[in-house]
Amino acid sequence: MSVFIEIPDGKDPIGYVWGELVPGIGPAASAFALSIYEHTTLGLREFEAARLRIAQINGCLFCQDWRTERDGVTVEDGFEEVVERWRTSTDLDERARLAVEYAERFALDHHSIDDSFWQRMRVHYADREIAELSMCLGSWISFGRLNRVLGLDAACVLPGHAAGGKQSSAQAGQSSG
User: Fold this and answer.
1) What is the pLDDT of residues 18-41, one digit of tens each?
2) Which structural domain range is residue 87 located in?
């Protein structure tokens, strides 16, 4: 896939689009995207489970390659496969499974989110966590799709990836989901 916006020579595509191309919007969008990682109260596994499911649905290569790091901790290798088979996996606790289900419904069929789902969700999540997860999902859907649709996801290589490692949220500046 090609980048569909002209990127000046020597510019990082994501940094350019998110930081320079639309100076009144890009930096604000980037700040919102970053705030999700900096201020979340959600546990790492449910956060990453929901984020990865959105990345899979969006098809954003950058977002699928990303791994959120907290205090040197990331989810285990192969977690993306666990998320793909969330319905049958025994490797997800109920909070993570609900986060993935919510992410999928939010992205693909939000009209299917019914009272039965909310009853199950409220057993495991407080209202604040539901609102926070909803904001995360909205951000990951919109910004991950922006990266994918404009071809930015394939044009960027995570700095830690060139050496074979995954990158932390602090290294990239922003991951959209």
Assistant:
1) 999 999 999 999 999 999 999 999
2) 13-172
The tokens of 35 are what? 């705030």
Q: What is the pTM of this model?
A: 0.85
The CATH code of the domain that includes 18 is 1.20.1290.10
Distance between CA 113 and CA 126 in Å, rounded?
17
Cβ burial, residue 124 (10 Å; 0-12/13-18/19+): middle
Span between the terminal Cα atoms of the chain, in Å: 18
CA distance 80 to 86: 10
DSSP assignment, residue 110? G
Q: How many CB atoms lie within 10 A of CB 73?
A: 8
Classify residue 5: in a domain, yes or no.
no
